[in-house]
Each structure stands twice: as C-alpha cells, then as structure tokens.
Specification:
The protein is an alpha/beta fold and 377 residues long. The chain has 12 helices and 12 strands.
Length: 377
C-alpha cells in the first residue's frame, strides 16, 4: 500500500530555546508518525549531541546534580534539581538520522529524520541566552523549510519559536517577525495569522506593532480589505460562507460613543460595507464576550483588532493546545503559540503539547495548502 502521509518540514527554532527540546519530544509521539512524515530541518550534529546528552538520563530517570555535558560538543545544558517528567517523553527515540533530501527519510517512530543544515558556531552555544549564532541558525532553518515546501518536497511547514533579537543580532536588520519573513520568502505581501484552539478561530487585523499604532491602523479601509481576505481563507479551509464577528476596540464597543469613536467612525462602516457585498459578518461585538460566543459556536471566527486582544482569549482557553496558522502562503504553516522560554531552556521541563498539535494541524492541511481543502478546522 502506498504511503500517503504528507511530509511536514519542522524547523528547530532558536536552538538556545526550548525549540529543539519540544521537537524531539513531539517526535517521540506515535500519533505524529501516524499523521505525517515529520522531517526536522536543522543541524543534525547539534541535535544528535543534544539527544546524547539526555538520552541516558531519560532511560535511567536520574538527572540530579551537576551539568549535562554533550559528548564531544561545547553546548552547556543546565540540569534541573529533580528529575523532570519531560525526560521520560524521549523513551521511543533511538537516534538521529541525517539526510540530504526528504526521499532519504525513514519516517518511523524511533528515528528522527533531520535534513542536515549545519550552522557554524553551535558548538559553543549557551542555552537560554540571546546569541547571534542562534538567530543565524533559526533563519537558515526557516529558509530550508520554505524551500522544501515551495519545491513540493514538503506539504507544509511547522515552526518552533524563534527570538527576534537574536535574529537581528545575527545581522538580519529589519527583521519584523516569523510570519512577515515567510511572506518575504514567498512573495506574499501580508499573510494572514489565525489562531486555532478547539472550536475557536481568531484572525488578526494587526500583529507586531505597538498598541498605539494598532489603534491607528483600525480604519474603515483596512478592515474593509481584511474581511474579504478572511472569508476567502476560511472558505479555502472548508468553511463555506463563514460567520465572522469583528471584536470591538473600546470597552463595551464604546457604548454608543461614550468610550471612543472608532466603532462608529471606522469599524461599523467597514462591516456594513462588507455586508452590502454579501459577506456574513457582524459587529463590532464587545471583546469581553465575542470570543466566548465564538467558542460556543455562534461564529466561525473572530477578527481581533490587535495582538493581545486575541492572544489572551486563545491562551486563556487552552495555552498548550493553541496553534498559530499562517494563511495565504503557497503552503500551510503552523506554529506553537508560545515563545523560546529561555528561562527553562536546557532543563527539559517544556511541554511538547502545543508542538504536537501544531504538527498534526500542519499534517491535516498539507496536501493542498490553503486551496481546495474540503474539511474545516
């Protein structure tokens, strides 16, 4: 029988953060291999050394006291004072399999296939620290995953978290973020970000800008252009005639103008314009209730007007299982909804739940990207 599992290209993220850890832990899970052919894009030697440093401890259940030196490498890991349960979640992994192309992968539980993309300087990496070499590595691995997806060798990509400061320190001036970089690599001017957790879907009108700038960006014109793009993306994901709700900006959606004018002057007119064109959109709905209503099925998705408005809603509902999707690219990209967690990097305390969810979502929508998908999230 032909193996129809899609290849999901998985980036390690910032190697000084928890990205490599949660990638390894995720690839210890049988359900990941049932859903796809997971292919790590990263430095095989670095990952092999990382695994060797903890694998004996994972098997013995004892990592108390001292540091965890890597065999033949300079990366330093800090041991936890007690045995983290997370080390036990490497029990299925037997080794790293370095490959030069996706066709060489074994894609079976126990073997971690890595498209070897070496980066000079990782031998001296300090876990949990912002470093130029880590930023350089993160960028190179993103480029590699995108190249695979654009060539058709991978059906989708799944990214571990990166650190923007490290990327800028590596010499990448003007770096704005993961999503924007993916847009630059694929020629897409403004990709859409959507958070998914259970039945809640959240699309973001603005992303990584200050709150003051985000408020200025809430205009009739911008929202009027954004609503059709959201409908198009949701329809492509198998949600016909999606019911959209636009969150309010001010308390109680300004309560008839008592707490601001944006609802009356910008948001409501944009919604009415969209409704006149046949889009199934309502609002502005007060932000303190709209996400709860969407979770309970009243709406298919909510348009969040600024970064934290939607992030707080999703992560409060289920921090670990929230997945970020980038839509509008030539392929699906999924990601965890958390950062590099430098404070616990190297201690093997991080949960892989969000990474597993992100890989499974990427696998689910791998075959046709954002076009022609017949099953909704």
């Amino acid at each position: 029988m032909a193996d129809t599992r899609p290849v999901v290209a998985i980036t390690l993220g910032d190697p000084a953060g928890i990205g490599p850890e949660i990638c390894l832990k995720a690839l210890n899970r049988p359900e990941v291999y049932e859903a796809c052919k997971p292919l790590i894009v990263g430095d095989a030697s670095f990952l092999n050394s990382l695994l060797k440093s903890v694998k004996p401890i994972a098997e013995s259940g004892d990592n108390r006291g001292g540091s965890l030196p890597l065999a033949g490498e300079g990366v330093r890991l800090e041991a936890a004072s007690s045995t983290p349960a997370g080390l036990g979640s490497l029990s299925n992994i037997r080794g790293i399999h370095s490959v030069k192309s996706p066709s060489e992968g074994e894609y079976r539980l126990g073997t971690v296939d890595v498209l070897d993309t070496p980066v000079e300087g990782l031998d001296d990496l300090e876990m949990g620290q912002v470093q130029p070499v880590a930023g350089k590595a993160a960028v190179e691995w993103i480029r590699g995953a995108v190249s695979l997806a654009l060539s058709g060798a991978a059906g989708s990509i799944c990214t571990a978290p990166i650190n923007k400061e490290a990327v800028v320190l590596s010499g990448f001036q003007g770096f704005r973020g993961h999503t924007e970089f993916l847009g630059d690599l694929t020629g897409v001017a403004d990709p859409l970000t959507m958070f998914v957790v259970d039945s809640l879907r959240i699309l973001f009108l603005t992303r990584h800008v200050s709150l003051a700038q985000a408020v200025r960006m809430v205009t009739r014109e911008r929202l009027g252009k954004f609503i059709p793009r959201c409908v198009e993306a949701l329809t492509a994901l198998g949600i016909p005639n999606p019911r959209l709700a636009v969150a309010g900006l001010n308390p109680h959606s300004s309560d008839g103008g008592l707490f601001g004018s944006e609802e009356a002057h910008e948001i409501a007119p944009a919604i009415e314009d969209a409704r006149q064109k046949g889009y199934n959109v309502v609002g502005p709905v007060p932000a303190d209730s709209v996400f709860h209503q969407a979770k309970n099925g009243k709406y298919d998705a909510v348009i969040s007007l600024y970064h934290d408005q939607g992030h707080i809603a999703a992560k409060t509902l289920d921090f670990e299982r929230t997945v970020s999707l980038t839509l509008g690219l030539p392929f699906i990209r999924s990601s965890v909804d958390h950062g590099t967690a430098f404070d616990i990097a190297g201690k093997w305390l991080a949960s892989e739940v969000s990474m597993v969810e992100a890989i499974l979502v990427a696998a689910k929508y791998s075959k046709k990207g954002t076009e022609g998908i017949t099953e909704g999230i």
